[in-house]
Amino acid sequence: MELRAENVCMRFFRKRGEANFFEAVCPVSLTLKSGELTVLKGKSGSGKTTLTHILAGLLRPTEGNVFLDQTNLYALSDETLSELRNKKIGLVPQGRSAVDTLTVYENILLPGLLYSKADNSPEAEKWMEILGIVDLRDAMPAELSGGELRRLAIARVLTNGPQVILADEPTGDLDDENTRKVLSAFHACAHEENKAVFIVTHENDALEYADRVLTMDNGRITFPLFVD
Amino acid sequence: MKRTSPVIKNLTRKSGRTTALVLLTALLALAVFGGSIVILSLRGGLNSLENRLGADVIVVPSTARSKTNLEQILLQGTTGYFYMDREKLDKIIATDGVESASAQLFLASLRASCCSVPVQVIGFDQATDFTVRPWITESYSRTLNEKEVAVGCRVSAGIGESIRIYGVNCPVVARLAETGTGLDTAVYCSQETLQLLLDAARDLGHDLKISGSSENVISAVYIKVRDDYDAQKVADDINIHIRKVEAVSTKSMLTGVSDSLKAVSGTITWLIIALWILALVILFIVFAMMVNERRRELAVYRLLGMSRKMLSSMILKEALLCSLAGALCGVALGSALVFPFTTLIEQSLKLPYLTPAAGTIVLCAALALAVTVISGSAASLRTARKLSRVDPGTTLREGA
Question: ipTM exceeding 0.95?
């Protein structure tokens, strides 16, 4: 399975200023392949998050297309794209992404229950154990620290088992030990479970786990760097 | 965790928001249900009064503001009495357009050692009566013997018991169906029994202002007018040709009651509409406030794979459950406020008041539930639409 962006551009229109729009991403072509962990580095405001949301099917680009194998994501109806995202693309977004009215455990199981009645409990238990949040299973999101919320979001994606994992600053709120746990988990997903993993970061911790490192600046991928 | 559980959890774990929505919708249901029941009870009271009067014209003595007294006796259950010579009955029967006429005799018992309860006692002529008899027949098919009485549903005496009126023990043989009028607090007997009670009252020293024998007096005459005659014209003829009586067309008497009822019903209807609009506006505001509060939460649902349709459906389900819970609370509260206090409502409105049948009450409850649930859900539609169109990418980019 591969996720492919072809000449995607994203322009945001401004109400004021010298230009009436700015280009957050322009033009970017990128392929994420199964069994490969890709890291995208770049400064804040370079367009990494926008590109990640475009790849996840959450933000329609102003130009270009995104394909999951042969399927053009933005040619799909909202219902089909939503179901496809639920089943095949997992996104760990920046910031808080927990549903406040559900416990940690309920949050982790939620994606698996939207379209099926699959019992993901064993997977949930496994990832909560690995990511060190098993003791927080009945806690509400309001009781968690930033790092715990981040691990919740990661456990939720990994439990649902998508073929493509997109993680936006997944280690931003984590200490060194938890950073290593998370990056090892993503590495294992790519190499043991043959998933396409894409990590967006401005830190260097992820580089040693990467098969490929890309750099983004001013909305453009400046150069690809392969890592042995 | 079941598939539908996020809805329940959103409601139970955001209890403040849920309680506010439930209270608002309860207010809406209370207004619709309580108001409808009061209006229907007033209409039922008027219909019942029309049925029970059963006459086109009623003739009473012109003395002592007797018309007012008659209305008070009929509508509010006030006790009273007034008399005229029996010979008036013959003159009334001889009037053009009178198909049949039957006399009634009134007596008011006292709250004193002579009597068990202060009630209006009405003696009717069992041979000619066409107003009381059909009513009594609903619960008692035999004729009333001497001293036997039938009691209105609000007289506290059961069948087989006796009530004492001016020292005379009168066995109760029937309890009558509710009318919602002053007639429910009266006691009914044959004219012969009432003459006996009049004599007993006079023997006890009560001045009933009757000259001569009690057999020669009557209190009111109920007239049925022939189909080809106008009741008002017959009443006018009686007023012109027979001295010291006042003939009242029941239609004109009921028009007064009906006008009051229209005024009260109109006020209640406007109150329901005002409350309904107020609750709906507040519901719209509450739901609109939720747009900002829940924007990020719903963006998360979208990123996890919920479609716009699923998101709208979730918000609608929440609104539907809140509205349903509120509607049930409102109907329960309405029942608790309206049904135990029917006498109080009747007394304060001074209008006949007859609680509708169980089937009608159930129908009103269903109507209140439907109106409330539809209004609550409709108020959330705009929010559901707006929230389902939240761009998750942009919302998530806007930060935590």
Answer: no
